Amino acid sequence: MKYLLVPISTIGCGKSTVFRILKELYPTWAHVENDDCGSKKEFYNKISHSLENHQVVLLDRNNHLALHRKQIVELYKKPDVTLIALVLVRADSDRKHLWNTTFKRVEKRGDNHQSIAGSSQKGLAKAIMSKFLKDFCPFDPTSEADAAFDYYVDLELGDNSSMANAGHVIKFLHTLNPELVPLIPDPDTLRRLYEKSLGQEKSITPRQQKMRREKNRESHPASPKTLSKRRNRANETA
Fold it and tell me: 83: which of 94, 149, 214, 216 fits an S-S bond (Cβ 3.0–4.6 Å)?
């Protein structure tokens, strides 16, 4: 049996931190980050390839839209694949607490992220996060797509919650399949790996830097005055 772990979250909820802890504990598991992929097709192809070669795949994307979950079900729902939703944001989540917690995290990590620069492009980061929250569609186990998940696990959102959430996921998987997770790590191990994951530097590739610039241009289009100046400069150098 294969296991596909799918977060339901928004930006800054700690899903990647949880997955980095799990990857450290279980190196044979696959961790596929959407932010490392240049397109949806590349991301889904990596998930498919990982499911062919690993027993557990950590699908690292927010999946805040019902459409995302529908696509995951359509692509990966099979008799030998168990779909597990990790619900980091629920329908009854306090939106003010959610915003304060997640934005503080994005600010703290600064530019140490593949696509969102929390320091040098704080305004853009706010705009992107606001859009995600506005569009967020809560996990609904009675809906057609979400009902296709085999299990869902309610997780927490708060200070140091990623460490606790990693523990919750491990305990759930241990209960589900003791052979998959035979031992529960002690709290000191979880804390050490949590602190290690927070200190990891992300390698920002030239392609990801370009994606940042493109997002910035899309969110801050040039004014007519600026465009006029650009045209004048172009004419002068023509």
Answer: 149
